[in-house]
């Protein structure tokens, strides 16, 4: 112990001169606070006077490497649902990303490529069953196990628009939580307009397909579980003041022949199905900032070989009451037929009134983003 | 700053650009140095008018080798090209805006007609993207002046939109009193490159939206944040409009903190040299187009203050340090009375840095180009007896150890060298 203390002291003294001469990295803070009062009708979930699930904080440190590559170290946590069995706080992001103009490597815990789009719902998991490929190793206690995984991703960027991704994940397994081996792989191809140029595209903002393969094979299951995702966002009215777009995603689950009777949630995720979900969004921006946003969407999921389907309807509106603060209201209706009724209940109405705080700031900014207007239109600077 | 020996760095080149010729007194050094001086803007004569063309575009600038950033530049150079005319000339400048941003040109220190003064919404409307504006004026008064953008001045000026404007007088009293052949224009500036980048990105994005709305006739005074009068502004505020300096801001929240300091757009080691000979006078026109004061100090010499904001001084006076405040111009005469290589630098040594690292920034040298090359040799003229056995008091040195010391410290046995760190 004494030797260890001496070593630590020595190492600290040795590196203190070096440490104090470091270049201070860019420091990014992202925060999203979602606090809602929930009124649930016909639901197993109780009403809530203040639901702050999905509230999260992200801290990122970014630096230029000696070779002009850039590296990101990100740590983030969120408050999961109360009945999620994840405790008070869930660390949803702990990863390192290394990138240059055309390549991105990411390793660590982060969002998995189980969705190709971003839908304007109050919380990311409000339409979970329709817009994510679901984790077949999960027991459905929470949605975080579908959204986040330990990932190893490589993305190649072509002409600043086309993203080709190869990814591998270790998704949480309820029956063997200490198993950290690769249990999923996938491939995605996307065409995506940089953020600064999204509003003035005549029609197409993005389009993409993805193939995800979960390694469900074992002694009793002969095959892996495969998903195919198609996603697109279309500009219906590319206007800086009155902007309308339409987001759509479809997921085809090839299913496992062994899973047909929805015995439990795991069975449900492994059943052959097709889901479609779309949302139309209207954004009013009068003085180059958000005034209000209204979105309406619906989804439908049908299961092959069984007389089972699910329906969802979501409508919401957000009004910006001040910088970073929005007041919102959301209504969601879900209906489950057939075998899905046994798992999730027949239908549910949920009304939520929410305050949302969103903040994203980079301190000590030292270099530009790949997709900034200067780098895109006036030559990229390494 | 005390005079110091520069550490060897060997021969350094970056991207094919050799910024330090092996011999400062060579012809190649002088050729290289010309690129670091202001470049002249040619004119055409048209019916008695001297016609110049200036355009503005987004440019990638490299103040020192290895560091680049996006800027705004007149005619793809920083500083913009030098306009040099005679007092009384009729001057016409065609200004072409090739960017997606708005600009104007203000003629700093000049007696122009008020509608040519380049102040947006006071003397003219801004020059919109892909538009042209013709500035016409009689060149007066004589002296050292400059031009700069007066739109979004906080960002546009430090982004590089400035250049020198010299109005000569054939009967120049300064030249009569201090005859000279060579003169130099040094345009100082300071830059927060991170601020410039963020502002440019933000403004470019906002301008795309504004241009779109303008084309449709939907861009109004509230979106523009420009009002005809106080009553219109008050009416808008009553109707719910929030001014951008309150809680409705659209651009960067922090004021710039300069991290690069340039002379003629360059930072040490790319700054220009001032060449002089013994018994020669040179005129140096100092212009501060930035937002920081530069306390410029010349080693080994006192110089004459001969003009202030272009106005010739009736009673020139001597000093060796001059505070060059933002917007100021000073003309000085340096007399070649002390042969050598002398640093000329900002004595606020925070501005002798590149991105926080010393040395850098505003560090120049006055070089006597009739200096015998022999005087550059370290081991012949150093005051260190370990290097130069003839220096002052004799010390017992083993010759072998002396050779090792030379090899370890110097590379070429010659001064000056380039030091990038210490």
Structure description:
The complex is a heterodimer of chains A (382) and B (422). Chain A is 11% helix and 50% strand. Chain A is built from 6 helices and 17 strands. In chain A, strands 1-3-4-5-6-7-8-9-10-11-12-13-14-15-16-17 form a 16-stranded antiparallel barrel. The mean pLDDT of chain A is 90. With 422 residues, chain B is of the alpha+beta class. Chain B folds into 4 domains: 1-21 and 378-422, no CATH class; 37-170, Sandwich (Immunoglobulin-like), CATH 2.60.40; 172-192 and 257-371, Cupredoxins -  blue copper proteins (Immunoglobulin-like); 193-255, no CATH class. Helix content of chain B is 17%, strand content 32%. Chain B has 8 helices and 20 strands. In chain B, the strands form 4 sheets. Chain B has a 6-stranded mixed sheet. Chain B is globular.
